[in-house]
Amino acid sequence: xxxxxxxxxxxxxxxxxxxxxxxxxxxxxxxxxxxxxxxxxxxxxxxxxxxxxxxxxxxxxxxxxxxxxxxxxxxxxxxxxxxxxxxxxxxxxxxxxxxxxxxxxxxxxxxxxxxxxxxxxxxxxxxxxxxxxxxxxxxxxxxxxxxxxxxxxxxxxxxxxxxxxxxxxxxxxxxxxxxxxxxxxxxxxxxxxxxxxxxxxxxxxxxxxxxxxxxxxxxxxxxxxxxxxxxx
Length: 232
Hints:
3% helix, 11-stranded mixed barrel, mainly beta, 69% strand, Porin, globular, disordered N terminus
């Protein structure tokens, strides 16, 4: 699917220019089982210009033994006109609840995250459900595991399936490089390709430069190997 997204999408449907996808994520670990988190995002249609999307969300996570986690969260998401900075009228205003299951496993030094998410979306155009699956691989470069002063690569692909309209809705492919600076802060950046399918042969794709700041508080209490990734 990743090859299809990058190479065979109809070029007439491209959105011009490289957009930006800016993320700040914070996670506070309470103990080996519980954690809370927040995240905010700003996206633009051009390089730090024509900002047309913002979101903020937060939730709580629970860790089971053997690398299994559950998450429950909520958030607010707003999409503006694409040809200006937060230009009205608003295209979509959405309140969202979601639950997810995360399964982690290892292939040598490669850490794989399987994320299954179920969303309840209260949008400007009505209520709908959505299912998402993301496969995310973290590969440490200069150390066997991700810890302080570690460079790493992150590759992920996520599909979006809806119960209204088109069954297949969206695909996101990302290729990122990150640096774990210390126990508090990790930075990662790279390219994200977003492909949207609207049905009846209508489709659109766009590339974004994504930059993420990941703040971790008390993560040592989790008892787990570090796996830096944004919530969305």
